[in-house]
Structure prediction request, 373 residues.
Amino acid sequence: MTIQQFQFSSNEYLRRRQATLRIADTVGARRVLAFGENRSGLHVTYLNGWAVTRAAWLSLEQGSCRMWVQFHNHIPYAQRVVHDTDVLDFHESMPSELFGSESVIATLGTVPAAVHARAQELGIELISIDKAHIALRVRKSSEEVDALRMGAAVSDAGARALVAACVPGATDWDLLAAARSTYTRMGGRDHICYICVTDATAPDRDVPSQVPEGRVLARNSIVTFELSAAVAPEYPGQILRTVSLGEMTDRYQDLHATAMSSRAAIRSACKPGVPSSDLVAAGAAIEAAGYTTTDDLFHGLGMGYLPPIGTSPSRIPSHVPEETLASGMAIVIQPNVTTASHSAGVQTGEMIVVNNDGFEDIHQFPEGLVMAA
Prediction:
């Protein structure tokens, strides 16, 4: 199955830009500068669709958007995919070109040292609007939800391929390759794919690793994974599961049953108007069973790692969110229950989108423990 590339509409980009400029206006600025570098720069992506490669500096004013891209050979692709943006060559003397005649400029992302220094020389005040911009991105438009649904579809496909590759003798590299090749053929792109392989009878790790470690699967292996792929950059799905290659030990059965119980309780609390702290309280079965967690219980996702973010009270550092759930929030529910010693753990969960009726399940992968064929 191939998924068509997703394009946001002109109205969607206009909505984002106007909302961003309104935030800038609250700090007395008429211009916004957004910065990204080395495949990290969601603020740039949000404003014109460019999935940042190397350095990308964007200047937004009313009726004007310009972007400077590092490396001339990156410019042709940028010109093809960005929305209503003049794409220019990145060069060392350009900091002064960013400022125009402004005395106050709003910024998004990490401001490069050269830009800071030149602004100081010219007496220009740079004011970060990152915090307010996070609040803007938390609630998704209907087009953003469409993009997340497509991200969920390619993530599910990657998860199915990863599970199918879980056979004795395979390595975690093989699992990663299976997942990536599947969603790439569909038009998906990488976001994250974290994998853990351990022995169910003598486990030595509790959460997936960010990079494969050459672990080899055996007949008594437990595999856990956290996988996100996207079609529109920065709009991934996210799915977490536990795979058993043999008969589950009592320890893992209990860990997973506790995780599923917590997942169900957290999901049942998800509806508009509910304090997100209630979702933390809904995960109380974890501590009641004598377990803890390493990762978050839940977090927002989609154009950034976003609020609400909640952790188990036994996890250090712990975090109790303050936000109230609202329609349009995309939340990953992921009670990653672990032993107190962090020698064993399970993964389960996926992204949902809060709506007026409660929430929408945007993933189609079956819930629960996965028994490898």
About this structure: The mean pLDDT is 96. The chain has eleven helices and 17 strands. The chain has two domains: 10-137, 142-371.
